[in-house]
Amino acid sequence: MVKFVRLHWFGLLLSIFVVLFMLFMAVIAVAPHNDAKMRGFTPCTYQMAQELSRDTSYKMMRIFKIVNNGYFCYFQVISEGAKQFALGKQKTPWENYLFKAESFDEIPEEGEPFSDDLLKANVLDDKEVKEDFLGHEEKGNDDEKQ
Questions:
Q1: From the DSSP assignment, how many helices (H) and strands (E) are in the chain?
Q2: Which of 68, 71, 92, 143 has the most CB atoms less than 10 A away?
Q3: Total domain count for the chain?
């Protein structure tokens, strides 16, 4: 075992780092980012979106810096959860970022924009496309067949 670790220590460390990074990304992907109370990752996501939407002429390094700062913010939220759990203020370490989000109030829909009558009136030349029992399309005017 010691010989195996001595020969493959770099690969083992790199594998552990990759697995931890993948877990970090999975937690970020699963957690809500649109909470109305601005809990968890929501402030980080909101701040990153605001910085990216200010100016569209960013250079690539500026974009990478903004996204990198967002991920540091995500890491701070996760470490804060672990700290609160260690102090006994939370039941679980992920309680501050894995929760059921309260969504924003949405504008109520005003109804269907197109009525059935309007949709029927928009049929071109009053022709309908029908399929026979073999799946072939039959084009024609219903008035001419009757």
A1: 5, 2
A2: 71
A3: 1
